[in-house]
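Title: Comparing notes on inverse folding

I've been comparing how different people in this forum approach sequence design from structure. To keep things fair, I'm posting one structure and asking everyone to reply with a full sequence. Here's the target:
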């Protein structure tokens, strides 16, 4: 059940992160933004567990997932920008 909640929170976090951090190098598709938000929620959950902020099996909250999604979108923008410039 924890993974399901992480996916739902990640979906919401991806949408919120896209509104917070729009840009040219960011993914423009709804599905890709959602997937990056879910990845950000998983990153925030595992990083929070590693740092002791969350107990084992406990997922990140909405704020942590949004921060994780913003980080993932930023990293994605760096790599997507390099690929577009190289071509």
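Reply #1:
Here's my take.
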């Amino acid at each position: 059940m924890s993974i399901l909640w992480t996916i739902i929170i990640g979906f919401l976090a991806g949408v919120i992160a896209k509104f917070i951090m729009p840009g040219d190098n960011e993914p423009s598709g709804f599905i890709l933004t959602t997937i990056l938000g879910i990845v950000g929620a998983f990153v925030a959950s595992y990083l929070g567990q590693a740092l002791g902020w969350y107990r084992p099996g406990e997922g990140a909250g909405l704020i942590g997932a949004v921060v994780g999604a913003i980080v993932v979108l930023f990293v994605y923008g760096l790599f997507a920008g390099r690929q577009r410039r190289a071509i």
